[in-house]
Specification:
Shape: globular
CATH architecture of the largest domain: 3-Layer(aba) Sandwich
Family: Belongs to the GPAT/DAPAT family.
Organism: Malus domestica (Apple)
EC number: 2.3.1.15
Number of domains: 2
Subcellular location: Plastid, Chloroplast stroma
Helix content: 25-40%
InterPro entries: G3P_O-acylTrfase_chlp, G3P_O-acylTrfase_N, GPAT_N_sf, Plipid/glycerol_acylTrfase
Number of strands: 9
Largest sheet: 9 strands, mixed
Strand content: 5-15%
CATH superfamily of the largest domain: Glycerol-3-phosphate (1)-acyltransferase
Distance between the termini: 8 Å
Strand order of the largest sheet: 1-5-4-6-3-7-8-2-9
């Protein structure tokens, strides 16, 4: 629970280290090279490289190689770098106490040349769009919520314009001096209609927690719907299994790491940063660099898994779900057998036991992707207040599913299809509960729906 105020960012800040106490250490730091990323908008927001050279120059060949950057030679630790960024950061947006002051701050920074005009227009539009989405909820504190959350968002976006953040192949969630994890939760929370949201087979999440405590690794094989997926997962589990969401590591594509309006939310999650197969050849001359970057990221994940007690979320489709162009119906995108097999093998070669669980997620109404995959950064976005769902199935063992297969290729395909079918089954139950308004009655023998936040008298309405 957080206190809403006109300067909400301070709610996420832990006590700062004074500038004089910043010392060198033999660990990682983040470069100040420019970068850009995928975004949250309500109506339409399209940014193109031709419109803003100062932002999208990062998409050039020489700069793209720095998108996911090794930081072994840096002299400051990540926390020290974050402290330095906070110390040097302006308070232009944090000082705003009204909507008028906040919007005026955007224009002031633009006129001063510190904020690119296209980013400024996107920030202003984002404010109005987020406000409209929160008003959909009917929450009597909508204006207070919007000002509080958007003050924090615009402040973080402007910080990244001042001092761009570069993600390492393995990025650990930044919780201090600014708590980016709670920042993301607070932003997405009022978009979730908890009265029309459900969790399937909630007891299995306790089973997963027990295995993590025993030092085992967990792999959640999931469909992927929006950039808000991590926050939705965490919000639906926070009243009963908050540790799972905070510990979870996400396999993240480069598009959520490269736009100032999305980067602050990514910074609050544990990430293994990779280039999606769907965008591997968008710029042919970068394909080799992307493959090498992915190899480095897989090595980072192998190191994590060797230590055990890791929970990893991955979408083997390589991207977000899309609606059927003919019917408009949403469904999980097909899984890529090669990606899934690589992950399974990686788990098998770690010292700790590994377990694979299918996971279905339904939340596309909150922040749907464009109907088709786009190569360029900058896409039309929508945001709304809506019910969401999460459902987990029992562990699926490769040997049990593939016992009758004749060769490894057949086994790989059979296992992939089995996982996909289970995720689709659970997804359809969630769709019946949420979109067809069947609620808890949509439960089946394989999917038992519940609202655990209600059972614990901790109903999370948009606050």
């Amino acid at each position: 629970m957080f206190t809403l105020s006109a300067t909400p960012s301070t709610a996420f800040l832990t006590p700062r280290i004074s500038p004089s106490s910043l010392s060198s250490s033999a660990s990682a730091a983040y470069s100040s090279s420019p970068s850009s990323s995928s975004r949250l908008c309500l109506v339409s927001l399209r940014w193109r490289s031709s419109a803003c050279p100062c932002l999208f120059s990062t998409l050039k060949v020489t700069a793209m190689a720095e998108l996911v950057k090794d930081t072994e030679s840096a002299s400051l630790s990540p926390i020290q770098c974050a402290e330095k960024r906070e110390t040097n950061h302006s308070r232009t947006f944090l000082n705003a106490t009204t909507e008028q002051e906040l919007l005026s701050a955007i224009r002031t920074e633009t006129e001063a040349g510190r904020l690119p005009s296209t980013v400024a227009s996107g920030m202003e539009e984002l404010y109005q769009n987020y406000k409209n989405a929160i008003l959909q909820s009917g929450n009597p504190k909508a204006d207070e919520i919007v000002l509080s959350n958007m003050t924090a968002v615009l402040d973080r976006v402007f910080l990244d314009i001042e001092d761009p953040f570069i993600f390492s192949p393995y990025h650990k969630a930044m919780r201090e001096p600014f708590d980016y994890y709670m920042f993301g939760q607070k932003y997405i929370r009022p978009l979730v209609d908890f009265r029309n949201s459900y969790v399937g087979n909630h007891s299995i999440f306790y089973e997963i927690e027990e295995k993590l405590q025993q030092g085992h690794n967990i792999f959640l094989i999931s469909n992927h719907q929006t950039e808000a997926d991590p926050a939705v997962i965490a919000l639906l589990l926070e009243s009963t299994n908050p540790h799972l969401a905070e510990k979870m590591t996400y396999i993240a594509g480069d598009r959520v790491l490269t736009d100032p309006l999305c980067k602050p939310f990514s910074m609050g999650r544990n990430l293994i940063c990779v280039y999606s197969k769907k965008h591997m050849n968008d710029v042919p001359e970068l394909a080799d660099m992307k493959r090498k970057a992915n190899t480095r990221s897989l090595k980072e994940m192998a190191v994590l898994l060797r230590g055990g007690s890791q929970i990893v979320w991955i979408a083997p489709s390589g991207g977000r779900d899309r609606p059927d162009p003919a019917t408009g119906e949403w469904y999980p995108a097909p899984f890529d057998a090669a990606s899934l097999d690589n992950l399974r093998r990686l788990g098998e070669h770690s010292a700790a036991p590994g377990h694979i669980y299918p996971l279905a997620l339904l939340c596309h109404n909150i922040m749907p992707p464009p109907p088709q995959v786009e190569k360029e950064i900058g896409e039309r976005r929508m945001i709304s207040f809506h019910g969401t769902g999460l459902s987990v199935a029992p562990e699926i063992t490769f040997s049990d599913i593939t016992a009758s297969c004749q060769n490894s290729e057949e086994a790989r395909e059979v296992y992939t299809q089995a996982l996909y079918s289970i995720v689709t089954e659970h997804y359809n139950v969630l769709k019946a509960a949420i979109h067809y308004e069947q609620g808890l009655k949509a439960s089946t023998p394989n999917v038992s729906l519940s609202q655990p936040w209600s059972r614990t008298q901790c109903t999370r309405l948009p606050l």
